[in-house]
Amino acid sequence: MTHEIEIESTLKETRKFKPDAAWARRANVPGQAAYKRMAKDAAKNPQRFWARMAKEHVSWFTPWKKVLDWKPPYAKWFIGGKTNVSYNCLDRHLEGENAWRKNKAALIWEGEPGDERVLTYGDLHREVCKFANVLKGLGVKKGDRVILYMPLVPELAIAMLSCTRIGAVHSIIFGGFAADSISDRVNDAQAKLIVTADGGWRRGSIVQLKGIVDEALEKTDCVEKVVVYKRTGHSVNMKDGRDLWWDDLMAEASADCKPAKLDSEAPLFILYTSGSTGKPKGILHTTGGYLTHVATTAKYIFDLKDEDTYWCTADIGWVTGHSYVVYGILANGATSLMYEGAPNWPDEERFWRIIDKYKVTVFYTAPTAIRTFMKWGDDHIKKYSLASLRLLGTVGEPINPEAWMWYRRVIGRNHCPIVDTYWQTETGGIMISPVPGGVTTTPGSATLPFPGISADILDHDGNPVGPNEGGFLAITKPWPGMLRGIYGDPERYVEQYWSKFPDKGIYFAGDGARRDKSGNFWVMGRVDDVMNVAGHRLSTMEVESALVSHPAVAEAAVVGRPDDIKGTAVVCFVTLEGGVEASDEMGVELRKHVGKEIGPVARPDEVRFTDALPKTRSGKIMRRLLRDIAAGRETSQDTTTLEDLSVLARLRESDEA
Ligand code: WT7
């Protein structure tokens, strides 16, 4: 078998940025020596390290009896411990020595049209207690699944925290997904309640949410009630006996609701993500370990202090929003800023205006956004002070050194450290990242595993590779925030994550990486059929099945092509049914069709028509070959198994046409 990893050996980045001494002195990990002590101590005994973190950063109703039970690939953390996530994010900031936080901002929110709201910890606690009572009143019980399909409004955070308060399991569906994506997830989770809104704002238009839920519910029969939050105020259809207004329910609800004492391993949420095969996977996270992981990493990587105004630009519908807009941030009693809309509404200065207006101190965004800002030009940023910023972060995909340097210079004004944080929906929290103040950074590298995380780069046989050799990025020891399974599909869990290096208890993340001589990790991207488009994971297979659901399409193959802004662009090779003519209009129609089936995130960048797809003799589509064609590269692949070589020639001709 050929090696799947292609090392981008052109990356010879050597610039280094040592933590500034004055900055480091004030940091939660105050300097390189402190970091080294922390990392060394954690490496000696990761379990003891995480137990200490769980004691320091999480409050427990009942202490755990055992730190870890590890029967690969099944882990349980903090066994016997009882806690509650909403208690940790809210109640404990209203008690004892933290009681002063009652009137501190928990959430600062700005809507796209410019409306503003601030919810203090006291406010958020009250709203969460009320909505938890609403959920109970609607018959939601511990362990029941609740779907949240909402715009980026405080009520989404309220609904999440309310679920955790009573032990219900939320599953958030990003507001950009279409009806079929919703019904698939609702059915898989067997949810009995959906919380949604009439709509949300995006670039000045209303995103229909309730209408899409109505359409999705035609294909499900488990949902009993739909709670609708009024955001846009446009008229929506309300089905008698099924649909209820959020405001009506809240008006009646009591603000008194004790947090349920939940087992450390009680399910917390399910979040669906794309895999290389089959339908989306419901990644399951549980309570105590997840909370320990996200609270600890948020505190040290974002260096959170009570004075901070922290802004993560991710939508809560992605894992970044779960862990680092809501749970990890509120668990620290910090202030989390949320902005509902698009970065270029009403103009391209929106983000910088928000930073100056609220004096944002810590800013966390995606490389694709950074590359977009670069394209918009520095002039739109220069007139803003951005002087409040003290720390910058990135997540979602590898950041190219050029974008990293631009981020440092133009946004960070050369004085903010950058934390490039590598992690996944499955890992729950950050895995590889600098700890600012303690770690020397280098543009394009996520640097070192967080203390307590054991990562390595392995070859096909599971042996570590040498410095600067490409290999598979693997996690070699269990960690507290790790996924506990794929909802309803235990076999897929084993197959997907633990079978690359069988029986070794080694997690394979799906990414290729190398490590340089100083031990820094360089993530090179996915090695499977998953595309990372603008920081979001899409499976080639899902886009293909959306394409073939169109009556004109006979067969389709989808691959990623490197793209300056989005990281990866979606390119589709399509063969049409006999009698259907290939045309530009058909291309437009198919792009729209995919957008409608899966959601705008998945809309293809390019559709190419071909009368045949290149296949091996056993009938497998040769994707790597298509990847080369899509990228306009001479193919480096072995074509000896290609069934019909003329297909390749014809695909290239169509490229030149
Ligand atoms: C995939 C996970 C983690 C929240 C957002 C995406 C890629 C993520 C980085 C980074 C290089 C990165 C990987 C990973 N990725 N962060 N800092 N450097 N690659 O979550 O949808 O679960 O996707 O995103 O390929 O496997 P996700």
Concise summary:
The protein has 657 residues and is α/β, with parallel strands linked by helices.
Bound molecules: 5'-O-[(S)-butoxy(hydroxy)phosphoryl]adenosine
Total E-strand runs? 30
How much helix is in the residues? 25-40%
Mean pLDDT: 93
CATH architecture heading of the domain at 120-268:
3-Layer(aba) Sandwich
Terminal residue distance? 34 Å
Oligomer: single chain
Compute the number of helices: 20
How can the largest sheet be summarized?
7 strands, mixed
Structural class: alpha/beta
Name the strands of the widest sheet in spatial order: 5-4-17-16-18-19-20
- Please mark out the parts with pLDDT under 50 across 5 or more consecutive residues, or reply none: 1-10
| CATH-defined topology of the domain at 120-268 | Rossmann fold
Morphology call? globular
Taken as a percent bin, the fraction of beta residues is: 15-25%
CATH class of the domain at 120-268: Alpha Beta
What does this structure look like?
The chain is an alpha/beta fold. The protein starts with 20 loop residues before the first helix and ends with a helix. Residues 1-10 have low confidence and may be disordered. α2 crosses α3 (46-57). The protein has a seven-stranded mixed sheet, sandwiched between helices. Bound molecules: 5'-O-[(S)-butoxy(hydroxy)phosphoryl]adenosine. The site of 5'-O-[(S)-butoxy(hydroxy)phosphoryl]adenosine (WT7) has 23 residues, from α11, β20, β24, β25 and β27. Residues 273, 319-320, 395-398, 420-425, 446, 509-511, 523, 525-526, 532, 536-537 line the site of 5'-O-[(S)-butoxy(hydroxy)phosphoryl]adenosine.
